[in-house]
Amino acid sequence: MIVVHHLNNSRSQRILWLLEELGIEYEVKRYERDPQTMLAPSALKAVHPLGKSPVITDAEITVAESGAIIEYLVDTYGQGRLVPEAGTPQRLRYTYWLHFAEGSAMLPLLLKLIFNRVETSSMPFFAKPVAKGIARKVKGTFVEPALIQHFDYMNNELAATGWFAGEEFSAADVQMSFPLEAAAARGGLDSKWPHLTDFLQRIHARPAYKRALERGGEYDIIG
Ligand SMILES: N[C@@H](CCC(=O)N[C@@H](CS)C(=O)NCC(=O)O)C(=O)O
Question: Of 6, 11, 30, 73, which is best to mutate to test ligand 1, by the most ligand atoms within 8 angstroms of its C-beta?
């Protein structure tokens, strides 16, 4: 039995969704973030040394890192579903977007989250204007332009078919769901990028997506 070590409001929600799309049985083991620090509980370190989610166990196998988990599940249990045929242009796009989600799309979103926290976190009064000034400068000169550049790019890429890897819905769309949900919740993504907001509406309407939400519980990132 596959066990998904699932942290509330986290990337592991997309793993539950993939398993629902594939119709594979699985168990959810829940972990709760510390409400102050938002970090995962140390119990997750017993599953994988980094103590991050998602991580899955499948008998004696442990797999961490969303993209690797998605590849493992699709390769092991997919029977050719949700992945374009090897050697096709669609397969190359699939691989690209599977990596792009964590390798490129998440970076400016994470920086925005961090610098927003710098602006609002408590510190000695004399340090506050300096910290706020630095945070605003980094966001204005690097983070916000990078977000817009990435949104424009992803929006254009979706224009042709509405899915990241070609005509068909694939596991690359599952992987890309998290950065786009995070972007809509706190990155400024809105209807100026209609193919992206439409993508979110279409995935949220999928029955498997809704079933995964029922299994996973609280998922605030949906925004
Ligand atoms: N690139 C990794 C990122 C994993 C990650 O940072 N997960 C977050 C949840 S969205 C986490 O576990 N945060 C809690 C912590 O770092 O303690 C992946 O895609 O699996």
Answer: 11
Ligand 1 proximity of 110 Cβ (cutoff 6 Å): no
Q: Give the burial class of 131: count Cβ atoms within 10 A of its Cβ; 0-12 exposed, 13-18 middle, 19 or more buried.
A: middle
Beta strands at 26-31 and 2-7: parallel, antiparallel or unpaired = parallel
**Size (the chain), residues:** 223
Q: Between helices 106-120 and 128-138, what is the axis angle to 10°?
A: 160
pLDDT in tens, 32-61: 999 988 999 999 999 999 999 999 999 999
Angle at 39 between CA 34 and CA 44, to 5 degrees: 100
d(CA 130, CA 148): 26
Model-wide pTM > 0.90? yes
Our mutation pick for probing the ligand 1 site, out of 12, 37, 42, 53, counting the most ligand atoms within 8 A of Cβ, is 53
In 3D space, the residue among 77, 63, 61 whose CA is nearest the CA of residue 19 turns out to be 77
Distance from Cα 52 to the centre of ligand 1, integer Å: 5
- Note the pLDDT tens digit of each residue in 103-159: 999 999 999 999 998 888 888 888 888 888 998 998 999 999 999 999 999 999 999
